[in-house]
Amino acid sequence: MSIYTRTGDQGQTSVIGGRVYKDDERVEAYGTIDELNSFVGLAGSYADQVLFADLKEDLQQIQQELFDCGSDLAYVKAEERRFKVSAEMAERLETWIDRYQAENPALEKFILPGGTMLASTLHVCRTVCRRAERRAVTLSRQSEINAEAVKYLNRLSDFFFAAARTANVRQQTPDVEYVRSKKVFGRKS
C-alpha cells in the first residue's frame, strides 16, 4: 500500500463530504488537533510506567478522543454528520482534573510552564490545545460544528495544566512562580 496519493499536489485535501484547500479553517482546526495528539504521545513517552500509570492511561484515552474530535470537525455537509464527541467526555475530564488537583499545592500566582520533561511537555500540550480550541471557534463562526468539541478542547487544556503540576509534584520539582504576578488565584470576586 502506498502512503502517497498525489491527490493533494494542487493544494487541496479531502474532508468528510468534499474537498477543500489545505489552508481552509476546517483543516487548520483538525490539523492543530493532530499536532496536539502528537504532543500527547510525546508526553506519554516521558511518563514513568509506575509513577504515572494513571496519567499514561488517561493520555491514551485522550489520544483516542482527539481523533474523534478531529473527525467531528472534518464534516463539511451537515446532513452527513455523525458526531462522536459528547458532553460526557468533558464531564469525565472534570473528574480527572479534580483528581490531579487534589495532589497539587494551592496556587496563588501564575506559574512558568516547565519543571520536569513530562510537566514541560504537558504545558506544551496545554498551549497547543488552546490553539486548537481557537481554530475550532474560528471554524464555528463560519460553519456549524459540534459545540461539544469546543467544550472538550476547553476542558482538555485545563486537564493538561493540572496534570503538568501533578507531574512536577510526583517528581518533587516545584512549580516556579512568575515573579511579577500578583495573587490571582483563590481570591473572592
Automatic annotation (TrEMBL):
Similarity section: Belongs to the Cob(I)alamin adenosyltransferase family.
Keywords: ATP-binding, Cobalamin biosynthesis, Nucleotide-binding, Transferase
UniProt-listed PANTHER family: CORRINOID ADENOSYLTRANSFERASE (PTHR12213), CORRINOID ADENOSYLTRANSFERASE MMAB (PTHR12213:SF0)
EC number: 2.5.1.17
Enzyme class: transferase
Gene3D superfamilies: Cobalamin adenosyltransferase-like
Presence of keyword Transferase: yes
Organism name: Fontibacillus phaseoli
Name the UniProt record assigns to this protein: Corrinoid adenosyltransferase
Keyword hit for Cytoplasm: no
GO molecular function terms attached to this record: ATP binding; corrinoid adenosyltransferase activity
Catalytically driven reaction(s): 2 cob(II)yrinate a,c diamide + reduced [electron-transfer flavoprotein] + 2 ATP = 2 adenosylcob(III)yrinate a,c-diamide + 2 triphosphate + oxidized [electron-transfer flavoprotein] + 3 H(+); 2 cob(II)alamin + reduced [electron-transfer flavoprotein] + 2 ATP = 2 adenosylcob(III)alamin + 2 triphosphate + oxidized [electron-transfer flavoprotein] + 3 H(+)
GO biological process: cobalamin biosynthetic process
Lineage: Bacteria, Bacillati, Bacillota, Bacilli, Bacillales
SUBUNIT field: Homotrimer.
